[in-house]
Amino acid sequence: MSYTAKDYMGLIGIEGMSEALLKNHFTLYQGYVANTNKLLDTLKALAEKGETSTPGYAELKRRLGWEFNGMRLHEYYFENLGGGGKPEVGNDLLKRLTTEFGSLEAWERDFRAAGAMRGIGWVVLYQDTQSGRFVNFWVNEHDAGHPAGCTPLLVMDVFEHAYMLDYGLKRADYIDAFFKNIDWRQAERRLKQ
């Protein structure tokens, strides 16, 4: 079974993200999907030849985490965009964020602060599936830094490719655009899954 790149062209026209920026980002995502498939095929072929103890196999196996998580994190990111940024009244996720952080504004300040940190990576609102607790995490690389046993609810890409074309070094302006486009229904669905 191969992975197929999803079509996110419906995001073209969202506020604060140009068509050129989004199309470039979609192309990058499609590369992660293609590379995930290539790696899985190559690893399978090496395993069928009995070459699983070779350095080449080990390096490809390590690389799979980067490509697969690059694919999946982009899917989470694109899928939690396009909602106009306005949460619905009664949204369970927002109620729980308010309870846990003291206010929705306090949660948002923490999420934005993580996104504004120097460096490249991702900001992810995770729910710890054992305790139910919500935590905003900075994830530096696709394949490292994800908390074990946690579910990603809201994902923001803060690699330069997500904003440089439109915002240059003004990451805070990109974060504003991200917040204007959050699809809170998608984050709520992830919570309920």
In short:
The chain has 2 domains: about 20-80, Helix Hairpins; about 90-190, Iron/manganese superoxide dismutase, C-terminal domain (minor pseudopilin epsh fold). About 50% of the residues lie in helices and about 10% in strands. It has helices at about 20-50, 55-80, 90-100, 105-115, 165, 170-180, 185-190; strands at about 120-130, 135-140, 150-155.
* CATH structural architecture of the largest domain: 3-Layer(bab) Sandwich
The helix content, as a percent range, equals 40-55%
Form type: globular
**How many strand segments?**
3
- SSE succession: HHHHEEEHHH
CATH class of the largest domain: Alpha Beta
How many domains would you count in the coordinates?
A: 2
Instruction: Give the class from helix and strand content and strand pairing.
Output: mainly alpha
| Strand order across the largest sheet | 2-1-3
- Give the biggest beta sheet: 3 strands, antiparallel
CATH names the topology of the largest domain as: minor pseudopilin epsh fold
Ordered list of secondary-structure elements with their pairings:
Blueprint (H helix, E strand, L loop, with lengths): L18 H30 L6 H25 L12 H10 L2 H13 L5 E7 L5 E6 L10 E8 L6 H4 L3 H10 L3 H9 L1
Antiparallel strand pairs: 1-2, 1-3
Helix pairs in contact: 1-2, 3-4
Overview of this structure, please?
By secondary structure, the protein is mostly helical. The chain has 2 domains: 18-79, Helix Hairpins (Orthogonal Bundle), CATH 1.10.287; 92-192, minor pseudopilin epsh fold (3-Layer(bab) Sandwich), CATH 3.55.40.20. Helix content is 52%, strand content 11%. It contains 7 helices and 3 strands. Strands 2-1-3 form a 3-stranded antiparallel β-sheet. A hairpin with a 5-residue loop joins β1 and β2. 26% of the residues are buried. The model has no long low-confidence stretch (mean pLDDT 95).
